[in-house]
Every structure is written in C-alpha cells, then in structure tokens.
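Incident log, support desk, overnight shift.

02:14 A customer reports that sequence design results differ from what the structure should imply. Their input is reproduced verbatim below. On-call engineer (initials T.W.) acknowledged and began investigating.
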C-alpha cells in the first residue's frame, strides 16, 4: 500500500508494540515522524533502529501533559495507553487519565495544527458483549465500576471527545476499534495471552489458562492492523468511523494454548487459574464496514503470524539467555561441535533457532 504525500506525523505511544511498528512503516514511506512516549510499557529498544534517522524524533513525554510541537503537523495517531490488563490495572487512575486527558491533549494539538487525529480505540468498548459477533452499531455492555473500567470507560470517553471535537470544531477525526492484535515486540511480561503462552511454552513452564479456556478472542497480526490503520487515516475526510479493525477468525483460549504448545514443540502442561473479573466471554469483530469503506480485510493467517511471533520470542529469549551464560573454557574440555546451539537450547520448549522464515509474505519479525 503506498501513500504518495510525505507528512509530518505524530505517533503517541510510538515506543510501544503497535506504535513502534507504525513508526517503522511511516519512516520507510518517507514521512517525518515525532514519536511521543513516556515509556510506561514501551521500550527504547523498540525504536532504537530509528533514533538516528533524520526524519525521526523521539520525545519522551506524558500525554497527560499538554503537547507542544513546533511547525506543521499533518497527522496524529493517538496510541498512547497501556493495552494489557496487567499493565493498565497497575495504575488504574493513571490509565483513565491517559485515556481521557491524553486524548484531550491530542485533539487540542490537532485542532491547533489543523491535523487529522486517529484514536486507537478498542473492542473493550463493547465490554462483555451480549451480542455476537460485534458490529460497530452495538453500544456495548461495560461494567463501569469493575477493574477493567479504567481502560474500557476511558476509551469510551476518548471516543466521545473525538466525536465532540468533530462536531464542535469540525476536527477531521478517525476512530479505530482495534481487536486483539499480536506480533513481535509484545513485551515478554506483557500478560496478554499470545505473549504469555509463547513465552511459557518456550521456557517449558505451565501454560496459564484462565477459567476453563472456553472464552474466545479473534487475533489480528500486526502487519494487517497497520494496513487498516493507515487506510483509515488516509480515507476521505468525511469518513470518521468508528471502524472495527480485527481478524474475524475466532478461537477459544484453550485452542490457542494447544496450538502454541504444538507449534513450539513444547512439553508445557496446561494449568487452569481463576478467570479474572469481567473477562469478556466472546469476542469477534464484524468487519463489513472496513471492507466496504476502506477496502480492508486482514490476510495473514493465524498460523503464519504465530510462527513469526514464536521466532521473535525464540531469538529474544534464547539469545539473551545464552549471551548471559559464562563462556565455557573450550581449551580445558573437548567441546561438543556446536557449543552455541547447545547453550541456546538448554531450556525446554522450542529449540530450533535456525528456523526458516515463515512462507509467503515477509512479516514483521523484529
Ligand atoms: P503498548 O502498551 O505496547 O503501547 C502503548 C504505548 O503507550 C507504550 O509505549 C507506553 O509507554 C505508551 N504510554 C502509555 N501511557 C502513556 C502516557 N501517559 N503518555 C505517553 N505514552 C504513554 O500497547 P499496544 O498494544 O501497542 O497498544 C497501542 C494502542 O492500541 C493502545 O492505545 C491500545 O489501547 C490500543 N489497542 C491495542 C490492542 C492490542 O491488542 N494490542 C487492542 C485494542 C486497542
Ligand atoms: N488469558 C489466559 N491466560 C493468560 C493470559 C490471558 O487464559 O495467561 C485469557 C484472558 O483471560 C482472556 C484472553 O486470554 O480471556 C485474552 O486475554 P488478553 O489479556 O490477551 O486480552 P483481553 O482480555 O484484553 O482481550
């Protein structure tokens, strides 16, 4: 997908999982990128390859404080917010303020600069849905006082703010309701299902299924999501959304656990833990609107996306682990022929560091 104009683009949350992949892509397309992040769940290593690029600027800043950037700004992607329940519940009041005050600072900056603003909203605005699958018209079933509310209600209020700025100030806005997205650069301690299960399987630790594992989610690979976000941002100005962006292929948590155990060649047992409060039972996007108005639908199958993600975590876990181990004195004892491979494969689980990249498209792999 190519967008011809070169823009000055702000990405809040640009050092996070989705944000850093977006920054990569925008830089590759020739745009100038201002990446704003307070590194709450983002990491500098995600953007390290970009920091010396002439078109890239990292601004360590909290979006709960007003945003000031000199010069012209054409586009703002507002991604700043922890996305994993583990992390957004770590500081619930901070999360609510990031969603609402952060969004307010973003739309204010957009208004001052005459920029388009895209809000990264979420399937969580539907809460624990009573209808299935979920179209955009569904108004949701959120518990406003539960442990997920800081995020769910915060994101709902942010949508309200975006639409009120559109109505009151004629601000050009776009709202994406992102469903579960996965891929390389998720945090190892992220707490979300795909990263948790892959890391557990690779380390040979028990796979922690919450509840009986019959609850479902629908998983979208990062590259597909980025296509959707960019198509939405560059859609005609009268198109605002909200748009569901996600992969409609629905899977139970237990199926995901089994699939990851199988794909990693792990011996990890499945261990059952209590279901967290208000954990949605089913989730699957209706993407008819995105298909019709954006010409978007995801095309990377779960199998292929999981392979790329497993490859990422294999390298990350085992190369770091191997590098931290003392180098054996190869003169003292006769070495086995392949010391590095042997050291790297000391943990249970996936051991094949020399795997070929997944077939087909070149997926984001770092
Ligand atoms: P992430 O946690 O990897 O990234 C969020 C980034 O925002 C991090 O770099 C973090 O440091 C930064 N951040 C948090 N609070 C901030 C603040 N107050 N000021 C500045 N920066 C701040 O999460 P992600 O998966 O990349 O999600 C990105 C966005 O997409 C989030 O807004 C999230 O709600 C939304 N989203 C993600 C998913 C998903 O499955 N990944 C699903 C729905 C919605
Ligand atoms: N989950 C699980 N074990 C884990 C992490 C998550 O069983 O180690 C379940 C969780 O209860 C939920 C689903 O996987 O039903 C997706 O959880 P995640 O935190 O990834 O995203 P969200 O609940 O926000 O969709």
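02:41 Re-run completed on a clean worker. Output:
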């Amino acid at each position: 997908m190519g967008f011809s104009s070169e823009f000055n683009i702000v990405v809040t949350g640009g050092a996070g999982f989705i944000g850093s992949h977006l920054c990569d892509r925008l830089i590759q397309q020739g745009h100038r990128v201002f990446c704003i992040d307070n590194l709450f769940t983002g990491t500098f290593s995600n953007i390290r390859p970009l920091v010396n690029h002439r078109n890239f600027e990292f601004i360590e800043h909290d979006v709960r404080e007003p945003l000031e950037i000199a010069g012209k700004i054409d586009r703002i992607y507002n991604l700043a917010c922890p996305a994993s329940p583990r992390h957004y519940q770590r500081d619930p009041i901070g999360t609510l303020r990031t969603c609402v005050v952060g969004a307010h600072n973003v739309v204010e900056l957009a208004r001052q600069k005459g920029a388009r603003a895209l809000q990264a909203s979420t399937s969580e605005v539907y809460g624990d849905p009573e209808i299935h699958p979920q179209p955009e018209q569904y108004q949701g079933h959120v518990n406003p006082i539960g442990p997920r509310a800081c995020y769910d209600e915060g994101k709902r209020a942010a949508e309200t703010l975006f639409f009120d700025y559109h109505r009151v100030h004629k601000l050009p806005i776009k709202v994406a309701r992102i469903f579960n997205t996965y891929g390389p650069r998720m945090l190892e301690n992220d707490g979300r299902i795909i990263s948790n299960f892959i890391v557990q399987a690779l380390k040979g630790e028990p796979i922690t299924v919450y509840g009986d594992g019959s609850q479902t989610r629908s998983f979208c690979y990062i590259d597909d999501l980025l296509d959707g976000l960019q198509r939405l941002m560059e859609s005609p100005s009268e198109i605002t959304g909200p748009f569901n962006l996600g992969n409609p292929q629905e899977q139970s948590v237990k199926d995901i656990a089994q699939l990851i155990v199988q794909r990693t060649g792990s011996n990890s047992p499945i261990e059952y833990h209590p279901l967290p409060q208000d954990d949605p039972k089913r989730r699957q996007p209706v993407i008819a609107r995105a298909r019709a108005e954006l010409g978007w639908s995801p095309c990377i199958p779960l199998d292929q996306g999981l392979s790329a993600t497993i490859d990422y975590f294999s390298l990350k876990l085992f190369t770091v682990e191997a590098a931290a181990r003392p180098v054996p004195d190869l003169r003292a004892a006769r070495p086995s022929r392949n010391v590095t491979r042997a050291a790297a494969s000391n943990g249970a689980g996936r051991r094949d560091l020399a795997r070929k990249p997944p077939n087909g498209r070149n997926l984001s792999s770092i």
